[in-house]
Design brief:
With about 475 residues, this protein is of the alpha/beta class. Helix content is about 50%, strand content about 10%. Helix 12 links the parallel strand 9 and strand 10.
Length: about 475
Amino acid sequence: MVDPRTGQLTSIPPLVRTGNRSLVDLAKSLVDPLLAVGCLFGSTLAWGQAIRPAEVVLAALVFALIYPATVPFRQRSHGMIRHIAASWALVAALLLMFGLAVDMIRIFHPNVLATWFLATPAAQALTHWISPLFVPRLIALRGEQVAIVIGANTLGRTLARELANDPYSQTHVAAFFDDRDLARLGNVTEAPICGRIERVADHVRANRVDQIFIALPMAAQPRILHLLESLRDTTASIYFVPDIFMLDIIQGRIDTMVGLPVVAVCESPFHGTTGVIKRLSDLCIATAALVLASPIMVAVALGIKITMPGPVLFKQRRYGVDGQQITVWKFRTMKVQEDGAQIRQATRDDDRITPFGRFLRRTSLDELPQFFNVLQGKMSVVGPRPHAVAHNEMYRKLIRGYMIRHKVKPGITGLAQINGARGETDTLDKMEARIRYDLDYLRNWSLRLDLWIIYRTVVEVFRDPNAY
């Protein structure tokens, strides 16, 4: 993946993986939801209860909430345990709120629920804590894979380093092949240079080679085709690592359209089942939030009416998904209602903000009406924060990749907000930092990440120095 701050390749994107690693990724995504389901059934049986359709429905619901899990097997730290505990607490809280709202929680035995809520994070933490001890050993039973890399360029060398440093790959890069002179290649330390590309087929036939990684630029298509033709009578697995992965990939994946293979370079994370999961979670969370916050919203509306003339709600045009304009609602905090071609951002000592409005902005209570935008389907609970249309038109010309954030619905809170990138963006660097977090959210979305952001938002809302 390319670091957007330096433009340097920092790791190999997840599309480039060996067969072993694919199985590990699948296990990683399944282990936490399966442990949660297993602990539910185990707790039910431990207390002498039968597994009824209600337990099966609850198991399916919790599996959908957790899948795919994002904690890697390699992560082994106290931070990992905190992350698992906090994530499970969010899932449990969401299930409790839903159960209370529909009056279904009484169906389940309280001892079963209490045992389940405690056993699940313990089982998840224990599994992830001991997994670095046995998972590499299980993979090693297959034996080490010998690989060669065609192209001793930045991409090829980074691939070799990643494979060497990854105990889950069990892959040894034995050689590079490149047509350039050694003087041009510089000091290549990852593996020896064994000759020009034309020698690859002879080397593979004379030596054990399990995997061949072709890391040549796409402009080298004639050489690649000739190389593939010369390797037809070998049994080595061949992987093509095209240099498009040097780009800033958003939800990159390999797919087929009308029977033809395509590579997604920039795509929304919310398509198919993930889109359904995202929408259902938005509806559940927004409904629960509005029910719980309705007394507060009534009090806020009265406070606005008492402290300033004019409407309670402030409406402003923003960009939604795919760059379509939407109308976003907020509680009014300013004496003015700007929505023109030029809008002045709120600043720390802005005289347009009323004293009561300043309290609303500091506590983020002014954002509560946006839960109605979520129910409308125009916004999401978590996503990139929407900017005024005037600001969008300015920054899309100044920041590379700015409009990619509109591949998803804007959110009430987001990854940028819990990392301090909120408030006034009086310099271009501040807005660039916000956009980096937004794009990271698109790359790494999961339901667990959404729940983690919501939790952090609630924790940070009263102590964020950039809220004004």
